Amino acid sequence: MAHTELDLRERRIIEDKLNAKISISKIAAELGRHRSTIYRDIKRNFYTDGELPYLSGYYCVMAQRKAEARRARRRKLIRLPKLRMAVITQLKEGWSPEQIAGRLAFEGHAIRVSHETICAHVYSAEGQSEDLARYLPSRRKKRRPRYARRPRGQVFPPDRSIHQRPEYVNAHETFGDWEGDLMIFERAQGKMNVASLIERKTRFAVLFRNNDRSSNHFMRTLMDVMEPLPQPARKSITFDRGFEFRDWRKLKTGIGTESWFCDPQAPWQKGSVENLNKRARRYLPRDTQLAALSNRNMKAICDRLNGTPRKCLGWRTPTEAFREEMMKLR
Hints:
Strand 2 (about 195-200) and strand 3 form a beta hairpin. The protein is an alpha/beta fold and about 325 residues long. Helix content is about 45%, strand content about 10%. Helix 1 packs antiparallel against helix 4 (about 60-75) and helix 7 packs across helix 8 (about 115-120). A five-stranded mixed β-sheet has the order 3-2-1-4-5, with helices on both faces. The two termini are about 50 Å apart.
């Protein structure tokens, strides 16, 4: 297992538990840490006030700052200014971190640095203050250490594959199984997008504005939208493998809804919502000013889509079919 240092959340818990006179062993057990880790952090980051002894103690924010300062001193590109300047010069020349590290090794320099260390410096507070990320061949908003990254296969495990989905869901036989997607708009709209949901049996559509593409924000909003429905009406949702859906586990713990995922690069496997998106584009083209869309506007679009007769429903409307299924649940 990769080594991970205590973070601010854990240090806040330590401070609260110490103030509550809870033993170190119990604090360690709650955090899933060895008690020596807790003892060491308290000892290293304990604040001592020489003038006002009663103010001495363990404070989480101060402990976090002390730990970050020690970590910065350990970093090679902070301790060695000449090496840092040489790396930055090559970055500005268009070299990748891997090329810089490889060249240092090739030339036999006594002091070397790995490409991981260079990337970590680029995305550190010091690197961000110099906007070093703009010199990378490809950049991200932020970067996680290599050993902390989660392979996509773990984010969307095999047992959640669409091929493991019950056959009755595939056949559109039962009520309460949905498909979900995001409708993306022009870059000028920023992070705003529209989430689209469709119930597979009744073709009932739900559209709502989503102000942030982060998975955490999307899942919270989705749960708020779905929670008013009774549990049998929200049994499962099928998504593609976009990272907007990587917090899918929250649906099961939050509202009891299962999640299924299409194969990579196979959005056609959730054809109902893809078809919904095409029809919704008549009212929501890519240049739509999403900030100006009110909840009333979104509801009017949904009402129009759900009020249109569908051949697959025997020319009933999705609204009629959905109401019939909801009546059966009473």
